[in-house]
Amino acid sequence: MNLEQMEYIVQVARTGSLTSAAEQSHVTLSAISQSISSLETELGISLFTRSRGSGAVPTAEGQLIISKASEVLVKIQELREEAQSFSNSLSGQLKIAAIPGPMHLLVDAVARFKREHPKVRIEIHEKGPNEILKDIEHGRLDAGLMVLSEQLIGKHKELSFERLMEGEMVVGVHPGSPLALKKSITPDQLEGQTFALYDDEQIRDYFTEFIAVHDNIDILFISNNTQAINNAVLEGLAVTLGLDYSFHGYREPENIDIVTVPVMLPGQGPIYYGWVSPKGRNTSQIAKRFMNALKCGK
Fold first, then answer.
1. What was the pLDDT predicted at 297?
2. Which pLDDT value is given to residue 256?
3. What is the pLDDT of residue 254?
4. Please, are residues 150 and 274 in contact by the beta-carbon 8 Å criterion?
């Protein structure tokens, strides 16, 4: 079976006539007849009932095969369009956002993408997860980079989610803290600590589990200002809780780095960073290209 044969049987089914299909396909009647007969022999079934009066009518088996062939041809056309878009110079606007922390993951990818596609205007915003979701739903953003959870995915079925990398929950501490020497930390070892927390649903849910079983935990403040949180940790006023990638891009000029230590909470499943975008064809071609570039590290 080849594409030409699939195109012929679909065309014959649409026109109801080998003659009309041959004319529209710009081939001879003999060529299209022989091609279909060869396919029928290969498959071991009759695809059409042929008669002078009624032309060509698909058999019951033929209807199923023709339906599948039509689906294949649609997918091939989509593939051709996709390939064509890759060969063309991209131009337009790309609006993306990331939650605070992993913003640094975008910088190199944006620079590379801009060099390859100089006609694309790129806007990067730092937003909270709820704002990212709302902006994507209302068409104000093309895509967003954020923490994904099964609960979040189930709640927003109108959006598309794609995992990019796996992360883990960590405690961020001053390098001089005794906790900085540990390979991992249990909730019990965090008793008596003061926290500066980022105002995020994922972190709030995680921290709620701590508070449920540990009373001796104090919160210095909750904020969406990451600089204030980092300063509190580096001044020894508090520890913080967050995802590992949120700390990878943070460096003080004096080379004093926040130390991150994995925190072990029983029953905690994997945590993922990933893309959120409009579903299906609503995702712009530029956004698809950029997300693929970031995923592949190209």
1. 63
2. 60
3. 46
4. no
Question: Under a CB-based contact definition with an 8 Å cutoff, are residues 36 and 47 in contact?
Answer: yes
Task: Give the residue among 212, 213, 190, 205 at the shortest CA–CA distance from 243.
Answer: 205
Instruction: Round to whole Å and give the CA distance between 200 and 203.
Output: 5
**Residue ranges of the chain with pLDDT lower than 70?**
53-54, 81-89, 101-102, 202, 209-216, 248-256, 266-269, 280-283, 296-298
CB 120 within 8 A of CB 113: yes
Q: Give the Cα separation of 26 and 250 in Å (integer).
A: 64
Max distance between CA atoms of the chain, in angstroms, equals: 92
- Interior angle at CA 178, CA 247 and CA 181, nearest 5: 65
Work out whether strand 169-173 and strand 259-262 pair parallel, antiparallel, or are unpaired.
Answer: antiparallel
Alpha carbon distance 260, 154 (integer Å): 31
Burial 140-170 (b: 16+ CB within 10 A, else e): ebbbbbbbbbeebbeeeeebbbeebeebebb
Residue that is written with structure tokens 């290969």 in the block: 42
Is the full-model pTM beyond 0.85? no
Q: Which residues is 123 bridged to in the sheet? A: 95
> Which pLDDT value is given to residue 215?
66
End-to-end CA distance of the chain: 37
What is the full DSSP assignment across 66-133? HHHHHHHHHHHHHHHHHHHHHHSPP-EEEEEEE-SSTTHHHHHHHHHHHHH-TTEEEEEEE--HHHHH
Helix (H, G, I), strand (E, B) or coil at 174: coil
